Structure formats: C-alpha cells, structure tokens
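Table 4 source record.
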Amino acid sequence: MKQDKFSQLAAILCISLFVLIAASCSDKTKAAPTKAEVTIDPNLYTVEHPDLFKMATVETKDVPLVLSANGTITPDVNRTIHVTSQGSGRVVDLKVRMGENVKKGQLLLTIHSADLAGAFSDYQKAAADERLAKKALDRSQLLYSHGALAEKDLQQADDTEEKARADVQNVEQRVRLLGGEIAHPSSVIELRAPVSGTIVEQNISGFEGIKSLDNSPNLFTIADLAQVWVLCDVYENALDDVHVGDSAEIKLNAYPDKTYRGKVVDISRVLDPNTRSAKARIVLPNRDGSLRPGMFAVVTFRSRKVQPKIIVPSTAVMRLQDKDWVFRKDSPQTFRRVEVHVLRADSDGTAQIADGVKAGDVLVSNALDFSSAVAEQGK
C-alpha cells in the first residue's frame, strides 16, 4: 500500500518537472530574435561600367496639338457631272459601264424616244407653216406696192410670218435639247459624255425605261479624279482644335506604307445630328488615279495650337509584356526601370510621354541594349 502511494507521488513529481522544463523552453523561444527578411527590387539595376551606355535627358517641348479622325476618299464635287436625259424613252444600246474612263463627247447610250420623234414632227409642221406665212407676206407686199392691199392687212401678214418663224426656232431648240439634229431627223437620242472623267455612279441598265426630266437618280455620274477630297468627321468637342489651313497627314488602308499630306480647306458649319460631328475637307492631287472613291482613311491633324509635352528618344522606350518601359538613372551606377505611357512616336525619332518621367530625368538612350547587357551581367 505504501509502495503504491510512493509510486503515485513520484509520477506527479515527474509530470510537474516536465511542465516546468517545457515552460522554460517556451519562454526562451519567444525571447529569441528572428532574422530580418531581405527583399530585392526587381526594377533596380546596378551596373559596373555605366559609362558604356549613352544617356539622354528628358525634355519638355511645345508641340502642335495632334488629333486623329476617320475619313473617306470622295470625288471632288466641283469636278463631278450628273448625266441625265431630257427626253423619255427606252435604252436600246448601253455603251459604258460603272468604273470606266470616258472622253468628252463619247457615246454613253442610245435611247429610242417618242419625245424626240414628236419634236421632229412638230418641227416639220412649224417649218411648213413658216413657208406658207412667208409666201403670204411676199404676196401682201406685192399687192400693197400696187395699192391693191390695205396697210393693216400687210401688217397682219407680217405678224403671222414672224410668229411662224418664232415657232420654228422654238421647235429647233427643243430638238437640240433632246439630243437631235435638225439635218438628221431621227427618233434615237444619243447621250454623250459632257466631260472627260470616270463613271463613278450608274443607275441605268440596258432596255430600261427612262422618264423625261424626272430622272431620280441620274443616269450616270462622271467625275474627274485628277483631284479628290478626303472627308472626315471631327466631333464637336474637338472642333476648337481644328481650323482651316491646318496641315493633315492621311494614311490609307490600301497603301499602309504611304503618307499623304494636305491642308484643311473647309469645315462644315452644320453638325451631323446623329454623330454630333462636322465634316472636314482636305484636297489631294491624284494624277496617277491611285486614290479611289470609297477608300478608308485615317487623318491626323496638326493644329496651329501648341501644348507642352514630355519628349524622349524613341530608342529610350522598350516594349515588354504589353507595357512601355524606360531606364532612369538614379545614381552613378544605379538605374531604375520605370513604366511610362507613350502618347505617340514621331517621325523625327522622338516619342511623347504622358507620365512616368519628368523633365530633367536622365535615361538610358538605348533601352534594348541596356536590358540585354544587364541580363548578361546577371548570369
């Protein structure tokens, strides 16, 4: 019995001693200091020989305000003629098609016209009446000279002959207006090109009926494409930035490697109610005919207004992971990679920056070479 009590007491003492030792170890563990974590900035680079890299200083310059707009090549309205027929009838022979080049006086189509046939008939009747009136006048003058006719009768005969002559001239003019020739009576109208150019619109086909003076739309549209317009939409919030006389650069989808230059010659005084935009017009020469109506264009306006912009060399900007970066010098041997927002790259080898750097910052002039060099150094 005594031995059992002694065993229980010994067990209690052992457990107590274990708890005390554990508590002591726990306090020592809490009191021991932890080692500080070391963090490395992935955008910070240290180079041993920075003098091997050319540097450029960020500048601020006053540059023209640049605005882009979508546009379309269209014929010059001042060089465009709508071709219609003055007489009704039916097309019997169509000589030309849409897109063809035509010369002034070239036959476009022929029309069998009842209007022209009726005009020739009226001319023949008027000419017969005029001949009869002339004979009556001659006879009246002879009788009047012998005292056998009163003066009022002579005046009446003279008036009748003048009216008959006027009727003949009237009908002659109508025949010519319909496209006929008095010397060659016919019921066929030959419609000819009034100017040289390109057929840019066709609204008639073979054997179709034609209405007189009610051609809506017209039969053909002929345009001289030696000069064309670029019409583009300038939205009302940008109208104050575009003016007549501003220079413009035009890029076409058809010729992506070419840049055309012109000036704004007119800006519409009326806004399109649907798009809230005004049409700006630019005139371009087109001697070789490469500019075709309907071509899509992107127009870049360079306004006479200027505003300060941050300018860096284009080579100082590196494109990486869909972002633009530059390397800014922070100390003699330390460079920081900084994300920037490029507004535009210009043809003079510079780029406009919106943010990320400021005037006076020193950048690596060739970011790509620097990036390759530090990558090799890190290996």
